[in-house]
C-alpha cells in the first residue's frame, strides 16, 4: 500500500513538473515573440495544470483540496488552453465556454462534495465537461483557414493527441458505470493515474504547439524578407524613372538654347509633378522604415479630423489643377478621433494622391467626413478608372503590390495602400475599398470614438 502511494506521488510530481516547465517555457516564448498570439494562454493553462497536480498531495487525501480541487484546476487550465488555440487561430474567444463551463464544474463539485456527497455523480459530470472540451479541441485542430494551411500536419498530430485524451475520458466514464463497487479513494487514484497519462498527452500537445509557433514565426519572417525584397525593387524602379526624366528635362533646358517659353514652362510643370511624386515616394519610404523598425510608438492624442483633412488637401491643389480635376470636400460637424496625427496625415495624403493619379481629366474626387454612432467615418471617392475585382481582396498587401501608371503616366510604388492599412490599424481603425473597373473607387475608413 505504501509503495502504491509512493508511486502515485512520483507520477503526480513528474506530471506537475512537466506542466510547470512547459508553462514557464511558453511564458518565455510570449516574452520574446509577443506578435505570436496564444502562448500566454498556453502558459497560464500549463501552470494551472501543474499546480492542480500538486494539490493532490495535500492532506487529507480524501478531502476536497486533494480530490476535487486538482480536477477543477486541471479542467480550468485545459479551457484556458482552448482560449490560446482560438487566439492563435485569430478567432474570437467564446467566453461562456472558457469561463462558464469551468465555473459550472466548480459549482457542481462543491454541491456534490459538501451538500449532497455523491462522488460518482461529481466525477461523472466533471468527465462530461472534459469530453466537451476534447470534442471542441479536436474540431479546432481539423479546421484551418487558408492562411494557416502550412500548420495542417502539426494540427492533425495534435488532433490525434486530443483524440487519445478523449478515449481516456470515455474509458473513465466506463469505469464509473461498470465498477460501482469502487470506493471514492480508488476512483480518485485511478483518475490521477489517468491524468498522469493525460499529462504525457498534453506534453505532446505542447510540443506540437511549440512547433506551430516556430513555424508561424518562420513563415512570417520569410514573408517579411520577400516583402522587403519586393519593396526595394519597387523603390529602385520608381525612383529611377522620375529622377531620370528630370535629368533629361534639365539637360534639354541647359543644351537647347532655342526653346520657346511655352516649351520651357511645360518642362518646368512636368518636373514639378515628377518632383512631387518623388518626394511623396520618399515620405512613404521614411514612414515605412520607421514602422518596420518599431519606431512608430506613440501616445494617443485628440485629433479634429476635419482640420487635418483641410490642411492636407491644400498640398494637392496644383496637381488637381493640372489635370482639371474637381476636388470636393464635404465636412460636417467637428469630428474627433484619438490617434497619431502624423500617421493619419500620411493616410490622407496617400489616398488623395492615389485618387488624383487614377482619375482622368475633368473627373471628380470627393472627400467626406462624418460622425456616426460608432465613431467617425472618412470617405475618399473618385470617378477614376477603378480596380479589377480580383485585385481588391489583396490590394493592401505589400507582397501583392505592383508599380502601376496613372491616367497620364504618373508613377507609383504600391507601397501607399499597404502603409495606409498599417497606420489605420495602429490607430484602432478599419479600412476597406469598394471599386468597379471604369466606374471609380471608394475608400472607407472608420475610426472609433475617442475614449
Features:
451 residues, alpha+beta, Rhopdopsin 7-helix transmembrane proteins, Heat Shock Protein 90, five-stranded mixed sheet, elongated
**How many domains comprise the coordinates?**
2
CATH fold assignment of the largest domain:
Rhopdopsin 7-helix transmembrane proteins
> What gyration radius follows from the Cα positions, in whole Å?
31 Å
Return residue spans where pLDDT drops below 50 for at least 5 consecutive residues: none
Strand order of the largest sheet: 2-4-5-7-6
The CATH class of the largest domain turns out to be Mainly Alpha
* Residue share in helix: 55-70%
Count all strands and give the number.
7
Q: Helical region count?
A: 13
Computed structural class = alpha+beta
Order of helices and strands: HHHHHHHHEHHEEHEEHHEE
Gross CATH architecture of the largest domain? Up-down Bundle
Approximate shape: elongated
CA-CA gap between termini? 64 Å
